[in-house]
Write a structure and sequence with these properties.
The chain has helices spanning 11-21, 29-37, 83-97, 112-120, 147-172, and strands at residues 2-5, 41-48, 51-59, 66-74, 102-108, 124-133, 138-146. The protein is of the alpha+beta class. It has five helices and seven strands. The longest helix has 26 residues, at 147-172. A seven-stranded mixed sheet has the order 1-2-3-4-5-7-6, with helices on both faces. The chain starts with a strand and ends with a helix.
Length: 176
C-alpha cells in the first residue's frame, strides 16, 4: 500500500473504481476532476504496482472548524484488508492539519461494512437522510467525529501503553 496525493493523472484509475463501486450514482469524470483540483480538498490514492487501487477525499477549508469526508472507495479485490481504515485515518489527519475540529460524512444505510469502519474509528450517527442516494432510494446515515476527542483518546492510549511498559519493566527489574 502506498498512499499519496492524487493528481489529475489518476483520474482514469479513480473513475474505474468509482463506476464499479457506485454503479447507479457514480460521480462524473468532470465532477471528480473538479474535486481533485479544488484547493479546499485533499484527495489521496492508494496504489500498488503503479495502479490506483483506492482513493478518498476530504473537504476541509483551511482554518475551518469542520470537514467532510467526500468519498472513499477501493477496487473490490482490495477490500477487507484494512486499506480503507488506513486511508480514512490519513484523511482525518489531513482535516486536522487544516484546522478542522470535527468531521462529518454520509454513508449508505445498505453498506454495513463502511458504517462499521466509521463507528470503529469513533464516528457517531447524528441523523438520517431518507432516500438520499438516488436512484436507489437508499437512506444516508449522517455521522460525526470530534477530532479533539479522538486526539485525546490517542494520547490517553499512548500514555496507558507507556505506564504499562514501565510497570512491566519494574516487575522484571529492567531499567527503562
Amino acid at each position: 500500500m502506498t498512499l499519496r496525493a492524487a493528481t489529475p493523472d489518476d483520474l482514469d484509475g479513480i473513475m474505474a473504481i468509482e463506476k464499479a463501486s457506485f454503479p447507479t450514482d457514480a460521480w462524473s469524470a468532470e465532477a471528480m476532476a473538479a474535486e481533485l483540483a479544488s484547493a479546499h480538498n485533499s484527495y489521496l490514492v492508494d496504489e500498488a504496482d503503479g495502479l490506483v487501487i483506492g482513493y478518498g477525499g476530504v473537504r476541509a477549508l483551511k482554518g475551518g472548524a469542520d470537514a467532510d469526508i467526500q468519498t472513499i472507495a477501493f477496487d473490490a479485490a482490495q477490500r477487507g484488508r484494512g486499506l480503507g481504515r488506513a486511508l480514512l485515518r490519513a484523511l482525518l489527519e489531513a482535516a486536522s492539519e487544516r484546522g478542522a475540529r470535527e468531521v462529518f460524512l454520509e454513508v449508505r444505510a445498505d453498506n454495513p461494512a463502511a458504517e462499521g469502519l466509521y463507528l470503529s474509528e469513533g464516528f457517531a450517527e447524528i441523523g438520517r437522510r431518507p432516500g438520499y442516494y438516488q436512484p436507489d432510494d437508499v437512506d444516508a446515515i449522517v455521522m460525526r467525529l470530534d477530532l479533539r476527542r479522538r486526539a485525546l483518546s490517542a494520547a490517553e492510549r499512548a500514555e496507558r501503553v507507556d505506564v504499562t511498559t514501565r510497570a512491566v519493566d519494574d516487575e522484571s527489574g529492567v531499567q527503562g
